[in-house]
Amino acid sequence: MKKPEPNFTAEIDPVRKRILDAAVVQFSDRGYEGASTRAIARDAGTAMSSITYQFGGKHGLYLAAADHIGGQIAGFIHPRLNAARSAVESGALPPIEAVLMILGGMAEMMLDDRSQKWAGFIVREQQEPGEAFDRLYGQVMEPMAELMIELIGRVRPDLSGKRLRAIAMSLVGQVISLRAARAAMLRILDIKKLGAAERELLHEALQANVRAILEVKG
Amino acid sequence: MKKPEPNFTAEIDPVRKRILDAAVVQFSDRGYEGASTRAIARDAGTAMSSITYQFGGKHGLYLAAADHIGGQIAGFIHPRLNAARSAVESGALPPIEAVLMILGGMAEMMLDDRSQKWAGFIVREQQEPGEAFDRLYGQVMEPMAELMIELIGRVRPDLSGKRLRAIAMSLVGQVISLRAARAAMLRILDIKKLGAAERELLHEALQANVRAILEVKG
DNA sequence: GTCTATACTACGATAGAC
DNA sequence: GTCTATCGTAGTATAGAC
Predict the structure, then answer these.
(1) Is the pLDDT of residue B112 over 60?
(2) pTM value surpassing 0.90
(3) Residue B30 C-beta-side C-alpha neighbours within 13 Å
(4) Is B180 within 8 Å of A182 when comparing Cβ atoms?
């Protein structure tokens, strides 16, 4: 079971990438046990034994799929985190605007149709976290959460410790639920699928709520 | 495939109930495809073919499990909805307090360890809603959402239509994320499991946020 | 109604050709 | 590296005893 060297170049081996893309969808839709390596290989246009060769087996593929998702999310969110951080540090942006910028970016991602591909994967891991969750948390959730906590602490110096973290969780929770409770959201808004108007509306509601929460005792 | 009559008495046939309890856990933990009727029957202490007899097969059992979950949640939440509604209508309770009472009840449920049993089932259905989601929505989500929307409309008469519904969704989303993003929440709070202190903290954060959002331009 | 026994299918893993 | 072929296991459904 020879393992290829990790590939740090921009261009991932097409076969690996095709398998990973297919795996994310299958694991997301059907869960770990429900997904079949046969179906993943078929969707990727390769033989099932490629999975054994490339990832060592189903479990290895699952972990690699978590990294694959993490990389995609990080590619979207890390530039925004860095922009927000440096703008605040240079004094160009008030901390509350940075919070709104980050949460807005997250909301944009959650409301985008493309996040459906990996949403199931993550909500499953949230219910029964394993090694895949560790990787996702370290790669994307932790950097975002810690920056949010720091920024919120500047906006609301009356908060600290666990109380500050609980407020941060509530703010982030509003955004998470745009994906995690997608079906209920659509019914509450009485629509079949999200259009531009609803995306705008949800963005505005989020902005208004965050300002209301953080500007208390302005 | 004779179907027994629906049972409206308080006492469900113990075999049916044991199967349903086991099914909720298995479907929740492993998903529809991942759960096995063999394992469910074993956990329930009966033969696999009892499932065929009682529910017509795996799919019938899945739908019955959704109803089972809905009934449990409804048993907790409907009394609170009714109490809130009548207290507001009699003028004994300001609408905003009713909103806090309902969201507090929801949060209590989401933070209770017992909701882990069915949380996985619901978040899966949220990602790929089917007939099971229809039943859950009609039985518990819709009555709660519609009452919330009505009450919030009274607190904030400047809101209406989809804008009102978007705000309602954001408020409920904070509560949903206590379960749907449980693993991330624990890490953000830097704890292994929820204790009484953290429950209290999250309750307080929720209350403070809801008041801030709804009392804007008080 | 609940059991045992069994038919049939699909799973993951792996060996070996190329 | 990727393929085909095959092994052993576990899945759902169902027939039939009691």
Answers:
(1) yes
(2) yes
(3) 14
(4) no
Q: Give the side-chain half-sphere CA count within 13 A for B169.
A: 30
Q: How far apart are CA B69 and CA B65, in angstroms?
A: 6
| pLDDT confidence of residue A7 | 42
Mean pLDDT for back-to-back runs of 10 residues, chain A (218 residues): 42 88 98 98 97 98 98 98 98 98 98 98 98 98 98 98 98 98 98 97 98 84
- Chain D nucleotides near the protein (CB, 7 A): 1-5, 10-16
Q: Indicate yes or no: CB of A209 within 8 angstroms of CB of B213.
A: yes
Q: Which residues of B touch A141 (CB under 8 A)?
A: 184, 187
A65-104 tens-digit pLDDT? 999 999 999 999 999 999 999 999 999 999 999 999 999 9
Q: What is the mean pLDDT of chain B?
A: 94
User: Tokens at residue A120, please?
Assistant: 């199931």
Per-residue pLDDT tens digits for B147-162: 999 999 999 999 999 9
Return the DSSP state at B5: P
Length A47 CA → D14 C1' (Å): 34
Amino acid found at B115: S
Test the B interface: residue of A27, A110, A126 with most B CBs within 10 Å = A126
Model confidence band, residue B216 (pLDDT cutoffs 50, 70, 90): confident
Question: b/e for A112-128, b at 16 or more Cβ within 10 A?
Answer: eeebbebbbbbbbbbbb
Supply the CATH classification number for the domain B65-214.
Answer: 1.10.357.10
CB neighbours of residue A152 within 10 Å: 23
Percent of chain B whose pLDDT exceeds 70: 94
Tokens of A29: 């839709």
- Measured between alpha carbons, how far is B38 from B31 in angstroms, rounded to an integer? 14
Q: What SS3 state is found at A156? A: coil
Size of interface A-B (CB pairs under 8 A): 208
CB atoms within 10 A of CB A183: 21
DSSP annotation of A98 reads H
Contacts of B123 in chain A (CB under 8 A): 123-124, 126-127, 180
A53 CB inside 7 Å of strand D: yes
Nucleotide of closest approach to B50 (CA, C1'): C2
B48 CA from C5 C1′ (Å): 12
Which one-letter DSSP state was computed for residue A139?
I
Backbone angles phi, psi at B80, to 5 degrees: -70, -40
Q: Is the CB of B52 under 7 A from strand D?
A: yes
Question: Which residues of chain A does B39 touch, with a Cβ-Cβ cutoff of 8 Å?
Answer: none
